[in-house]
């Protein structure tokens, strides 16, 4: 009987079945009604991954590894979002060598009249940390920028857990793991401005902040692991700059050409 209840969800209607002509023409009123249902912080059943400063510290540019894998999304009434991912990646060929990945980004989102969501991150702010302990001594820490499209979403009361539940469907209609409302109506998020500005950076939706641009960041600290937690992620290397690796490749190619003619 529990198995049946666990999957049950009482979905709430998103728009009136009898929309007025103005609603049908613009979708503006429908969008506003849907936005209110979406506002808040949502997390998967582990409840260990939550957006905000407890997951990513932009001042010291570091993650705090959660106790368990999970996903969290936050949405605001005025069109901002934040996401946090912690994934454990099994290795079927060598089970003793799992990988782990932490991802974080934030930016603007749009809700279209067809109930789809378009997420546009602030390109310079996103971060990703990948660990493969059996292949690398240090985890790989890079910028992360991945726009997303969700074909549709559902919000409703999960009758088993007794809380609001969010179902997101990817661009190909495949469902994500369900998420449950953790904070409402005020989501738990970092400031909705560019947190790690560069000389040429602009935020999603051309949003900017003078205060943010003047913020000084300390040197990246070592990866923090909560006490008593078995860490999948090792000590990280510095933030990788793709341009640096491009110039390294050019230099290596030139050196190889000289060596070929010399020897």
SSE layout and pairings?
Layout lengths: L1 H5 L3 E2 L9 H6 L1 H11 L1 E4 L12 E2 L4 E2 L6 E6 L4 E10 L9 E13 L5 E5 L5 E5 L7 E5 L4 E11 L4 E8 L8 E5 L26 H5 L21 E5 L1 H21 L1
Parallel strand pairs: 10-14
Antiparallel strand pairs: 1-11, 2-5, 2-13, 3-4, 5-6, 6-7, 7-8, 7-9, 8-11, 9-10, 11-12, 12-13
Tags for this entry?
single chain; 263 residues; alpha+beta; two-stranded antiparallel ribbon; globular; disordered N terminus
Sequence of secondary-structure elements: HEHHEEEEEEEEEEEEHEH
DSSP summary, beta strand count: 14
Query: Low-confidence parts, pLDDT < 50 over ≥5 residues?
Result: 1-33, 202-248
SS content category: alpha+beta
Terminal CA distance: 77 Å
**Major sheet, described briefly?**
8 strands, antiparallel, barrel
> What is the share of helical residues?
10-25%
Q: If you compute it from the alpha carbons, what radius of gyration comes out, rounded to the nearest whole angstrom?
A: 22 Å
Strand order of the largest sheet: 2-5-6-7-8-11-12-13
- Mean model confidence by pLDDT: 74
Strand content: 25-35%
Give me the number of helical elements. 5
Shape: globular
Any overview of this molecule?
Helix content is 18%, strand content 32%. With 263 residues, the protein is an alpha+beta fold. The strands form two sheets. It has an eight-stranded antiparallel beta barrel. It has a two-stranded antiparallel ribbon with strand order 3-4. The chain is globular, with a radius of gyration of 22 Å. The model is unreliable at 1-33 and 202-248 (pLDDT under 50).
């Amino acid at each position: 009987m529990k198995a049946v209840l666990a999957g049950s969800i009482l979905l709430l209607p998103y728009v009136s079945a009898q929309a007025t002509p103005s609603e049908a023409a613009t979708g503006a009123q429908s969008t506003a009604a849907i936005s209110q249902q979406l506002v808040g912080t949502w997390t998967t059943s582990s409840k260990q991954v939550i957006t905000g400063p407890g997951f990513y510290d932009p001042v010291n540019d570091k993650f705090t590894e959660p106790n368990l894998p999970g996903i969290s999304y936050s949405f605001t009434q005025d069109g901002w979002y934040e996401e946090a991912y912690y994934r454990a990646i099994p290795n079927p060929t060598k089970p003793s060598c799992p990988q782990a990945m932490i991802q974080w980004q934030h930016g603007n989102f749009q809700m279209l009249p067809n109930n789809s969501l378009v997420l546009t991150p602030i390109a310079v702010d996103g971060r990703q940390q990948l660990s493969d302990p059996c292949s690398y001594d240090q985890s790989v820490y890079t910028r992360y920028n991945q726009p997303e499209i969700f074909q549709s979403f559902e919000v409703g009361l999960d009758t088993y857990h007794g809380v609001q539940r969010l179902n997101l469907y990817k661009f190909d209609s495949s469902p994500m793991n369900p998420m449950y409302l953790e904070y409402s109506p005020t989501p738990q998020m970092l400031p909705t401005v560019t947190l790690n500005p560069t000389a040429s950076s602009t935020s999603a939706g051309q949003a900017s902040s003078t205060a943010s641009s003047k913020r000084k960041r300390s040197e990246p600290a070592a990866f923090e692991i909560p006490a008593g937690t078995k860490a999948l992620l090792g000590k990280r290397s510095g933030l990788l700059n793709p341009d640096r690796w491009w110039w390294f490749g050019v230099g290596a190619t030139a050196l190889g050409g000289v060596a070929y003619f010399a020897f």
